[in-house]
Design a protein that fits this description.
The complex is a heterodimer of chains A (320) and B (270). Chain A is α/β, with parallel strands linked by helices. Chain A contains ten helices and 14 strands. In chain A, a hairpin with a 2-residue loop joins strand 1 and strand 2. In chain B, helix 8 packs antiparallel against helix 10 and helix 9 runs antiparallel to helix 10. Classes of the chains: A alpha/beta (320), B mainly alpha (270).
Amino acid sequence: MDSLLKLDGVSKEYKSAYGRVRALCESSLEIERGEILGLVGESGSGKSSMANIIVRLISPDKGKIVFNGVEISSLSARAFRKFRREIQMVFQDPYSSINPKKSIGYLLKECLKIHEKGMSDEEMERKVSESLDEVGLDSSYAKRYPASLSGGQRQRVAIALALIIRPKLIVLDEPVSALDVSVEAQILNLLLDLRKKHGLTYLFISHDLNVVSYIADRIAVMYLGSIVELGKTEDILGAMAHPYTKALFAASSDISATLSGEIPSPMNPPSGCPFHTRCIYAKDRCRVEKPSLSLLSSGHFVSCHYPLRGGEKNENSCGI
Amino acid sequence: MKRYFSNPSFLIGSIILFMMLALLVISFFHTPYDVTAMDLANKLAKPSQEHFLGTDQFGRDILSRVMKGIEVSLLIGFMAVSSGLLFGLLIGSFSGYFGGRLDEIIMKIIDTLMAFPGVLLAMMLIAVFGNGLLNTIIALSVMAVPRFARITRSGYMELRDSDFVKAERIRGAGSLRIMFSHILPNIVSELSATASLSFASAIMSEAGLSYLGLGMQPPSPSLGIMLSEAQDYMLRAPWYVLIPTITIALLVIAFNLIGDGLQEMNGGVK
């Protein structure tokens, strides 16, 4: 398989007034060229930290990030600059992610000014209206300001802003969760169309499992800074192997109904398997030994000592 | 624009300021008398048809001198506020955007400056560098810098981690572009409110300094100088002292009202 982005053992801790917060713990992930990888998990699971590390808003404490065959985590800010245009991001809230004081045309043109030095003014105008057209807005929107746009239109603008410089990878951080349900489907279909047209790769972060199952080719499930299950969407939906994944999908809308207890504090993560405090199948081994992400079946990974089989608990899965 | 004038503070302030500006513009082309022309036979005259607001102790026309005095006040206020704004903006934006050790050092200096009473600080500067128009402007702008630096800094600190700034970083925008092309337009409204309030205090400080003999020097027609000269004739010619007082008050009130109005419209609690 041809991987576009590879995270290898990436860790990140934040220092807060109350102590250290472990956001990512030795997480590894590969995103293949042209795929949509869905990243799901509760809030506080480290999804956003991972997104921020990929677009280099924050730098990891440990681990390597390889993009398109080049290790980008060790590059200086200056050397990274040419990779800026390859990795773009769309934020969750289109109301806060677009500068309210600038016209849409100004912002789009600015992307070109930064990355396409020496482009003529007419060429830029043409590209701006082309990119607005691509996201389903006509060129008159270039003169408008964010305040006169609806949430869906703003998110279209945000997508145009990410797309105008033709990146290879777009990190979509909950791109539809701030939108009305009626607009949600339009934006998802727009994203699918654009991927086909430009051969894009998406990392699609969401807590909405319906949305992720609809759009993603593969799904990665995160819990407390680690990836606990990873596989093709149909494999995961067909045979969830991690108890957490199962609980998460069982309770699409209300996780606390099927999971007992709160998500543990990332300041004081549990020993052993991070999920053992809430897992109904937890055994002594889970309390002391941390499972690693291991291959279950072709392309399906899980980090659990006693993975579920066919939706049922298999007592013998570990040969005990 | 309509939104601005529906705010009563802003509207009243603007009307007063507009009248003052009208007097200022007229004074460029015409004053009833020469501001320094003395007429000792006619000193301390009551307001009459010849001297609309009376004359002073040398028989100079008070209306003409007030008109020129407004010019001096507004000129000094404008120069002091704009240079204070410029430096405050530069200091505050770098300090707020980059933070860290530099920010700590700069803010300690700003706090120290703020701890001095403004007029005292200006007096010290004038005592060291001498008086005159330029030094008065410099002293008043030094007084204005901390306020602008603080407002700018807090705006930058608030916005530097906002989503749209993060989005700009991801798009590859450099720090200067983010600071001045993206963050600055978002704090202009707060800065303009502060500028208006600072304008009022600069006018008052200039009058105060001139009154104390530290700002403009006679025979310049500064409102502060007029006030200090007039106080000796308070009983004989009360209009002489009242007119510069009311003029200063109107100017200060106008800028304060405009500043308050701007602040209210920004959603500030004042």
